[in-house]
Every structure is written in C-alpha cells, then in structure tokens.
Amino acid sequence: MNQVYPIPTELANRTARLAELEQLCRLKIAEVLQAYLESEADELIGRRRYERTQDTVPVYRNGHDPERTISTPAGGIPIRRPRLRGTTFESEVLPKHARRLPSLDATFHKLWLEGLAQRDFEPALRALLGTDAPLSASTIGRVNAQFRSEFDAWKMRRLEHEHYAYIWADGVHLGAGPGDERRVLLVVIGADLQGKKHLVGLDEAMAESEESWREVLHDLKVRGLRSPQLAIADGAGGFWNALAAIYPHAKQQRCWLHKMRNVLDKVPEKLKPEMHRAMREIWTSASRAEAVSKVESLARSLAKDYPKAAACLRDDVDRMLTYFSFPKESWKSLRTTNPIESTFAWVRLRTNAMKRLRSGSSALYLVFKLIERQAISWRRICGHKTIALAQENVA
Fold first, then answer.
1. Residues 247, 228: contact at Cβ < 8 Å?
2. DSSP 3-state assignment of 262?
3. Which of 168, 225, 257, 320 has its CA 20 to 30 A from that of 234?
4. d(Cα 36, Cα 50) in Å, to the nearest integer?
5. What's the CA gap between 257 and 283, in Å, rounded?
6. How far apart are CA 183 and CA 169, in angstroms?
C-alpha cells in the first residue's frame, strides 16, 4: 500500500528547506535595498565607487554606518547605510533613523482598531517580525500619536459645502481621565441630503452642560455648518438650550429610547414588559393625533399608582412627536438617537479592552479613529429618498 502521509524525516527536510527559502528571500531583499542606497550615494557625489573626477569641492565615500536591522512584513532586513565626507547624505528610501517600513505603522493602526490591545502588540508581532524588531509599548504609543494629528486636521476642516438635513446629538460616558473624574464625549452625527451618515462633531467635556454644547455647536457654525432641519437628542436641557441659541430654526425631537428608559425606571419590574409594549405602540402610531391619545390614555392608567411615571410620560410630549412633521418613510430613523447608540455599542467593545483611558484627550482621538473605522459600514437612514421632499416642506 502506498504511503499517504510523508514520513517525519521528509517533513523535517521540507521545514528546513522552507526556512532556507525564507532566509534567502530576506537576503535578496537586503541586497536590493543595499544596492539602491549605494546607487543614491553614487548619484549624489556624481561618480561610481573608485572613480575620480576633477571636482573643486571633493566629496568622498567614508565607509558605512554600523549595521542595523529594518523591520519589514517579511522579517528583519540587515542594512548598512553609506556615509559620505564633504556633504550630507539623506536617503529618500531609508531615512537616517528609520527602523521599520511605513507599512508596518499602518499595520499597527489596523490591528489596534480591530481589537488588539496595546499590551499585546509586542508578543503578537515578535513571531512575525523577529526577535530583533524594534517593538515596545512606547513604540506603539508613538505610532498611535499619529491618530491625534489626523483628529486635529479633521477638527479644523471647513463645513461650508456640507449640508446635513438631520443631526443626532448625545453625550457618551467612557472610562477616561483621572480616577476621580468622569469625562463625557459630546457626539454629533449628521445625515446629508443623500441620507448618508457622517461624524460631524466630537469633543470632550466634564459634563453635558449648556456651555459645553454651546462650544461644540458654535465651533461647527463658525466653520460653516448650516442649520439642520431637525435635531434628535435625549432630554438633557443643556443641548436644547444651546441648540436654540446657535441654530434657532432647527426643529427638535427628543429620543424615545431615552424616554422609555426614564419611564420604566419609575414602575415595578413586573410591569416593565407591558409598559415597553405600550410605549412602542405610541411611537409607532400612524399619526400625531393617535400618538397623543395613546400617551394620555397610558398616563391616566399610571397616574393613581405610579404618578411619577405618568408625569414623566406626559413631560415634553410636543417635542417627543416632532418626527410626525417629516416624511413617514424616515420616522424610524428620526425618533431615536440610535445612530449614536449603535455606534458606541461597538466602540465600547474596543475601549473596554483598554480598561481606563489615561486622559480625556487621548480618549477623544482614539474614539475618533474607532468611529471612522465603524463609519465604513454605516447605512443610509430610512427614507433617504424623501429628504429632498422634507426640505421643500420645511422651506
């Protein structure tokens, strides 16, 4: 009977040959890179090695720098950088202090965004890049510092050419800052005239105060953001006061999910499933009049035994039902702050792995990159084809 699997000796030989092939590939890459560096030096001094010219200002080769290893996706590559006397040599391919290829920095970014904790980078990448690769927690930290420069550029962008028909705003609490503080990230997401969602504003604050929201909205307005048709947020008065001051013509819609949580918090556990169904029936009503009738009916049934729940339900009813003024196809997207809630459910999966972020500013630009990554999969809002119609009605 023929042997189906190779015998152990053959496997060992194959492994040895593969290791030799891998080493050969690295050596050839090193040869090509070394030859390119030597060619750059030749071009700078205007002659090849051992050639002579009549230059008035002579430039000579002066050996090589000590050998160093350049980390690449293929492993460590040994390189000796040429030295010149009489001029300064700066390679366009390999900067003076480079220890790894730029593609590795991009890989570090992607791994972090996909969920690899910073403390796990070194052991995870040693096997790929080799034991001599320049990897440490500080190395990864310096790479991630590029996130901050990207966030700063995004924060300064002009917005004159952007038009967001609807915006969602919310304050999101993450574990960031000193242990005795609890920073909040103020988030604004907008839907453009094609229904595509975009991160519009992101800033840190100590609380969801009116002053904090004023700063966020004022900054957006100064950079050219036009007034949205509708703003959706929770019941915190700070945002609504700031919105009325900065964008007084924007209509206001309170989030039904936040309202439901507030009401359910005021009834016993046994009634919560029934209350949940009753409130869903309210916000899925076919008309504003039907929704108002259901709110009053439910409030009356709660008033005797649970007066706080009834008062909470009746509170700010007009602002709870603003979405009825817009096309029906978009109601599902306009009655809650779900675009922010769902995004940060994903963000928290990543930030929870980091335990506590050291500062609010570091949380800010790292969360920015996470949202930027998540935005790739964002879908258009419901009824996006009716946004133009809504514009005409508002006008």
1. yes
2. helix
3. 225
4. 17
5. 10
6. 16
Q: Token pair 């439910």 is at which residue? A: 298
Q: Report the distance separating Cα 206 and Cα 181, nearest Å.
A: 8
What pLDDT is attached to residue 356? 46
Can you read off the two tokens belonging to residue 233? 């947020």
Picking from 341, 369, 382, the residue whose alpha carbon sits closest to that of residue 196 is 382
**CA-closest candidate to residue 71, choices 98, 108, 36:** 98
Residue 195 — left, alpha, or beta (φ > 0 → left; ψ -120 to 50 → alpha)?
A: left
Q: Which residues of 329-344 are buried (b: 16+ CB within 10 A; e: fewer)?
A: bbbebbbbbbbbeebb
Instruction: For Cα atoms 142, 148, 153, give the angle at the middle one, nearest 5 degrees.
Output: 140
More confident residue, 14 or 303: 303
360-374 vs 102-114: helix crossing angle, rounded to 10: 90
Please state the rounded mean pLDDT for residues 277-300.
Answer: 94
Q: Which residues pair with 173 in a beta bridge?
A: 184
Token pair in block for residue 67: 């050998």
Beta partners for residue 171, in sequence order: 186
Q: Which helix (H) or strand (E) holds 385?
A: none
Q: How far apart are CA 381 and CA 392, in angstroms?
A: 19
Q: Quick one: three-class SS letters along 275-331? A: HHHHHHHHHCCCCHHHHHHHHHHHHHHHHCCCHHHHHHHHCCHHHHCHHHHCCHHHH
Confidence grade of residue 139 (pLDDT, cut at 50, 70, 90): low
| Residues contacting residue 140 through CB under 8 Å, at least 6 positions apart | 108, 112, 118, 121, 122
Q: What is the pTM of this model?
A: 0.69
Q: Which of 37, 128, 26, 39 is nearest to 77 (CA)?
A: 26
Contact call for residues 184 and 171 (beta carbons, < 8 A) = yes
Strand 197-205 with 82-85, pairing? unpaired
Mean pLDDT of the chain: 79
Rounded to the nearest 5°, which phi and psi values hold at 192? -80, -175
| Distance of alpha carbon 395 from alpha carbon 391, whole angstroms | 6
